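Why should sequence recovery work at all? Because a backbone constrains its sequence more than one might expect. Tight turns favour small or flexible residues, buried strands favour hydrophobic ones, and helices have their own preferences. The token representation captures these environments compactly. In the example below, the structure is given first.
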């Protein structure tokens, strides 16, 4: 599945480079979608949402802070729901791939002893958030609200309450 996604991504990036748009408005995204169909037939069939997602997916994973991680998960959740609603299985899988990457990145940072202990604890918490969301996205945000009120969370991360 990952190879197919990488191939589709490569097709999109090549077609986008050929068009050479400076800004990707809905009209340019539609033009790109039509070019993909013309150049690749059925293999190039891609929804506009998927193309827009590929253009911005690198920007989805921000978790310098717990608040940033929550926003990233909200954006991933929104995309996953939209793609599932429209039956775009490949795009929905791509969202999950990006979320798994986020979880792995947070886990790696949480184990890096060169990183401050407080930041490692934040990344461990963020990795856990990604794990819970990947396992069961439906109740995740209700769970997260409860988690942020848990005594151990408030003890580890007292500044999060002050930020909100």
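From this structural description, the recovered sequence reads:
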């Amino acid at each position: 599945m990952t190879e197919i996604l990488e191939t589709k991504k490569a097709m999109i990036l090549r077609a986008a480079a050929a068009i050479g748009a400076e800004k990707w408005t809905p009209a340019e995204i539609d033009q790109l979608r039509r070019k993909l169909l013309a150049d690749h037939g059925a293999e190039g069939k891609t929804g506009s949402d998927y193309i827009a997602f590929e253009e911005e997916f690198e920007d989805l994973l921000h978790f310098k802070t717990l608040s940033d991680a929550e926003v990233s998960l909200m954006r991933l959740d929104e995309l996953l729901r939209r793609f599932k609603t429209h039956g775009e299985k490949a795009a929905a899988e791509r969202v999950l791939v990006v979320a798994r990457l986020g979880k792995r990145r947070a886990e790696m940072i949480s184990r890096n002893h060169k990183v401050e202990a407080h930041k490692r604890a934040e990344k461990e918490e963020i990795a856990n958030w990604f794990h819970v969301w990947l396992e069961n996205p439906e109740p995740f945000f209700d769970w997260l609200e409860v988690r942020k009120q848990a005594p151990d969370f408030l003890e580890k991360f007292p500044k999060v309450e002050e930020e909100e």
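A few observations help interpret the result. The first helix runs from residue 2 to 19.
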